Amino acid sequence: PLRYIPKLKELVKHEAEKNKSQWKTMGPAKVAVPSPHDFLQKHSKEPKLAPKKKEQDGKRLLPLLPPRTYHPVIHIKKNFITKNAVAVITGEPKKPRHFCVDTRQGDKYLLEPSGLYPKYIKKKNYGVVPKCVTRRKEEMKREEEEYQASVLEQLKKKAMKTLPEEERTNILKALKKKWEKINHAYQSLPVLTDTTYKRMHKEELELKLKQLEHDIAAIEKHKNIYIADV
Fold this sequence. Notes:
- One of its GO terms (molecular function) is calmodulin binding.
- The chain is mainly α.
- Among the domains are: about 95-160; about 160-230.
- The chain has five helices and four strands; from the N terminus they run H-H-E-E-H-E-H-H-E.
- The mean pLDDT is about 85.
């Protein structure tokens, strides 16, 4: 039988030859040997300056003229001793500081920051109430007035009303008429109350008569009657 030949044989062979290179895995690499004439010389690695300009026709090159806007810096020597002496002579004398001594040993402290020296009364706005305080007081006063107005309005809504005289007279007449009717029924009761119903009926009429008499007396006693708005 024929021998088996893989289809990718040529491709694998080509890839293997492509990745090969001389001295890749065996021995040191072959590099060019330096020439014996190119040896390291002294000061060869130091930076070299630019070459100097040579004189032209035996004359030295003059520097360029400065621009017109150039102003040279002039260093003036100052005499600080004289300057300080003039400042001391012409200056105002130093005012003495006010001290306060409070012990026998001479312990003293500055008077101005102690609060004993009246320096704040000399200010222009001394004793003037700040605007923020005035504005706050006005706001509080306005809020208080609004609150009082709302309370009065609520009280007016819930205030008691006076009963008119005509209505008072009509109520009194109706109560007296009702009292007469119940009194007539009470007078019509039998003299002997031998049953429970008769006793209960008599007690009920007596209670109604007492309540009507109390209401009639109250209305007749007080001319002004107030009715609450419930």
